[in-house]
Structure to design on (293 residues):
């Protein structure tokens, strides 16, 4: 048996609390978003926390937690200091328990994202084999879901596609399975390039169909469709570059945009693109548009 203590705290109080929990016998700590707060990571090698954080601390059943709870109950830095309770957990296979939360996801009629340890529900479909990892993009976030659904409806055979900010490569692999002849997968993070290379191999994509690049190594090209699932500010900063990377009458797909950021992004792209009606899901927006001739 194990004991779990769930503590809500602001991020600037995390280091001291972390030290206190480990000193009190915690065997592990897990950090969770307490208020559905997106993290805008713009600098490499940083590990930012949400402004408000849940810390799940795990202790053995023999640890006396009453002195710790009494102490934390007087700490006004703890958001839920008056509601701290011990939750008893049965022994489990902790190495595999997390896998239960990741199930196949469907986009359109015949596009699925499946973890490698689960047999695809529809073997005849376009199945992306993708395990959750450090690089962004496993299909469960609204922005990725919006992009996958758009790709399913619009990608046709022999198109050249660019996935700018490719992360795990989920959109690159989807475009390839849907018929794109060549996909240029671009990311500024070398970890993402490593991740997508592994996922290309896992999905048995033919050599050369997905080509990976750091932004500074990208050749001078124009594509039929450019998709960028990143953040509003980088999208705004890259607007002219994206216009130069998209063929006349080519499609541009932008996501990673909060509803309140939609108009600002559109204002920076309407000079070069005809804007379609934005699509929204759970407070996030996808903007698709067509390059003017």
């Amino acid at each position: 048996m194990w004991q779990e203590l769930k503590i809500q705290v602001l991020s600037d109080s995390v280091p001291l609390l972390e030290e206190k929990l480990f000193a009190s016998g915690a065997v592990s700590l897990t950090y969770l978003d307490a208020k559905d707060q997106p993290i805008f990571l713009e600098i490499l090698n940083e590990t930012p926390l949400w402004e408000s954080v849940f810390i799940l601390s795990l202790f053995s059943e023999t640890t006396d937690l009453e002195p710790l709870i009494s102490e934390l109950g007087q700490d006004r830095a703890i958001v839920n200091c008056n509601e701290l309770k011990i939750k008893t957990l049965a022994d489990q296979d902790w190495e595999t328990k997390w896998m239960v939360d990741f199930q196949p996801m469907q986009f359109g009629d015949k596009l699925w994202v499946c973890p490698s340890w689960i047999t695809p529900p529809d073997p005849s479909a376009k199945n992306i084999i993708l395990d959750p990892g450090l690089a962004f993009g496993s299909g469960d976030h609204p922005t990725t879901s919006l992009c996958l659904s758009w790709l399913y409806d619009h990608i046709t055979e022999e198109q050249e596609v660019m996935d700018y900010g490719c992360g795990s490569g989920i959109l690159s692999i989807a475009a390839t399975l849907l018929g794109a002849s060549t996909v240029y997968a671009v990311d500024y993070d070398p970890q993402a390039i490593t991740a997508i290379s592994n996922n290309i191999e896992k999905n048995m994509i033919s050599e050369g169909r997905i080509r990976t690049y750091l932004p500074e190594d990208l050749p001078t090209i124009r594509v039929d469709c450019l998709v960028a699932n990143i953040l509003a500010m980088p999208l705004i900063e890259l607007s002219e570059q994206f216009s130069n990377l998209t063929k006349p009458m080519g499609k541009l797909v932008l996501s990673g945009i909060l509803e309140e950021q939609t108009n600002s992004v559109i204002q920076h792209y309407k000079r070069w693109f005809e804007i379609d009606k934005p699509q929204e899901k759970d407070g996030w927006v996808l903007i698709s548009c067509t390059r003017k001739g």
Remarks:
- The longest strand covers residues 246-258.
